[in-house]
Amino acid sequence: MLLGGAQRPWPSGGRRRRRRTTTGGEVSKQLAAEKRYATYNKDCDSKKKRKEAEIYQALSSEPVDVAALRRMAISEGGLLMDEIRCRVWPKLLNVNTEDLPPPPGMPDEQREGLQEELIDSILQVLQRNPQLHYYQGYHDIVVTFLLVVGERLATTLVEKLSTHHLRDFMDPTMDNTKHILNYLMPIIDQVNPELHDFMQRAEVGTIFALSWLITWFGHVLSDFRHVVRLYDFFLACHPLMPIYFAAVIVLHRAPEVLACECDMASVHHLLSQIPQDLPYETLISRAGDLFVQFPPSELAREAAQQQAERTAASTFKDFELASAQQRPDTVLRQRFRERLRAEERAKMLLATKPRTNRFVKLAVMGLTVALGAAALAVVKSALEWAPKFELQIFP
Q: What DSSP string runs through 288-325?
């Protein structure tokens, strides 16, 4: 009330706000919630510190306790931070860090940042291992290692990874990659036959999971923390673990899949758009459980049978999708921006011979996935325009 008994005018908007009275019970609930939250954070910090101490203890053992490091990499939270990953990832890959090759290429002041380091690392690995072939998506894995451990260590780790975990992806053809993808449906069938049958009726195939598999999910996850967490997991496990993780993602999304139209386009579109808010720790634990329950040796027969049943007629849609993604001109265009630089920039690139050679060499790597003599025409035309485009690290 104002002086003289006059009413206080309403605030603009015409609605009078009521003061909210907080009861004693609500205050108690709020305090209890805050206390639980503080206790949870304290517990998390305590667990993290305890795990960090256990990791360093395993590293300082003589010899290094690699089995303990694998358990730490797989268990909740993974390896916690990049500083630890720099020390543990080499142990998981059995790489000697005492005798690393010097960083390659030009002086630092002449580098063009991560782009240059990426090309150097890829070229080094492929030059030393002529049996390996660049594939679309390989750069996503290389750049992850560069960001975590730096160029000198990354090149050595990626080389070891390329001759082991990634070896099947680096053949001249996609035959071994397709064989690994064939494990996906048998895993799903073991856990959820209804979902498996629905996907079979939709004829969706497994191409939607190709980029997941060959980049270790680095190309499809936007949060780098989740990417390196998965790398901890995969480095500590069997090379086929990424396909088990792909299977648990599909199983996790079973309600969405079963609710959509039972046709190839609808199911493929749904599964290709991977959610960014997945319960990663739960899925990692589930993938590990499925690997133990249904090891690759038990699924090999079903995977081979799927390969035998994939006739030319029934897999033409898969072939179209795979061809579009791996075609030489597509690989090149995804590595280079699809816009021409100003004439001055183009002349400068062409005039810089060492740099131009790098672009052409990287382009040739992308062509190793080509099928048959028909690709030769594409090679010729592609190399004509390749130097005019800037390398795209993150397509």
A: HHHHHHS-HHHHHHHHHHHHHH--TTTTHHHHHHHHHH
